[in-house]
Design brief:
The chain is mostly helical and about 350 residues long. The protein folds into two domains: about 50 residues, no CATH class; about 230 residues, no CATH class. It has ten helices and seven strands. A hairpin with a 3-residue loop joins β3 and β4. α5 runs antiparallel to α9 and α6 packs parallel to α9.
Amino acid sequence: MQVNRLKSLLVACLGLISVLFITPVVANEKGGEEKLDPAKLIMEHIQDAHDFHFFTLKKKDGTEFHATLPLPIIIYSSTKGLSFFSSSNFHHGHEAHNGYRLEEGKIVAEDPAEKFIDLSITKNVVQMLLALTLLVSLMIGIANKYKKGQGIQTAPKGWQNAIEPVITFVRDEVAKPNLAGKYQKYLPYLLTVFFFILINNIFGLIPGSANVTGNIAFTVVLGVVSFFVILFSTNKHFWGHIFWYPGVPVVVRLLIMLPVELLGVFTKPFALIVRLFANMVAGHIIILSFITLIFIFGSMSAIAGWGFSPLSVLFAVFIYLIEIMVAFIQAFIFTNLTAVFIGQAFEGGHHDEAHH
């Protein structure tokens, strides 16, 4: 019963989004003011921005109403000093303010010779701070309950029931199999990465929110952090197998094995970066593509647009439900691969100790 209600809610939300989201575009197309550009439209909604844009309505007088939440613009220039103002002063890129203007989501100076540093708080930054706040407050609240004995002497309650099985799963299915006796050392990092990615993945599915994990800068930072964790976990056996692979002829070692093994050190974090980024941005593109198809057909014929709408919304809801599952899967895959790579970093020493 609850699943059916959830599906109905998702259908209603996506239907409302599709009507509010593209109605002005259709009006512009009919009025000859602006042609529908699906690629530009989709990219604008998955990229970072200086405001939270929810929907746009076309008024009777031809003007547009943009339901947005502007964010602060912080710019430091050696000539002007520190500038602080709201992104609403740009009027969605139509006007300049204080010598700066907004072009394709990026702030540029009207004077090409001016050098400045953009310190603005974008929607990705806001959403990451919200995710971090939620993660810290949630975990501290659960930890305080355990300190009081709830969940130990008595049955767990509230969020403890939801979080405890996940923590146990990461410990038993990710940390222990890959890290053996050292799993307790890395478990805090693995749990932090898992829940931080998961919360941002789920936040990204809320209409009007930012797709943080679909931003390459976000995944690069996570990949670099994991890269340094992997490097600091290495031992002499790890580097010995890279620079002087045992049992292999010298020529093969130097010309083939050494470049391949050194490249493998960097391809591991690269795989983490690209996998998370590609999977999370792909789902959003597919959903927006299905919604945009309604108005592509609608620009050809009103009958075709309305006729294709139910099928398009149905497919969008289907992909949306899959994205909910992908949010958990990608958090698990990133965490699991990180544990695998860390385990490989001290694998030689671990096997030697076990043999001894």
